[in-house]
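Quick check before the chapter quiz. The format below is the same one you will see on the exam, so make sure you can read both the input and the output lines.
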Amino acid sequence: MTRILLHLEGAFVFLASLYFYQQNDFSWLAFVFLLLIFDISMLGYIVNERVGAVVYNLSHSYVLPLLFIVAALVASLDWLLMISLIWMAHNAMDRMLGYGLKYPTGFKDTHLQRI
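Here is the expected output.
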């Protein structure tokens, strides 16, 4: 049941990100091109699994994009808001599809499931 709720949470956040992205009239072409760029954080796994998990989890939590969304709104930086909403959508899409935060035991061990 908990796993289903986490998938639903991801779907809700993903749809909310899309809604606010559309409300700001940002480029959908930019959205498509930037949606997967945040997976570059997987490069931390080149060092080792522990570093990889930390780098990946920092990039794939909701905390950093949310902080950047707030900063973008306070500073009226549309470009930062656009990137932050895409980042939030990416993280939410991952949760919705079952890709969770990583455990240091291996890339396939996540808080949602073993991939």
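If your answer matched, good. Residues 2-98 form one domain.
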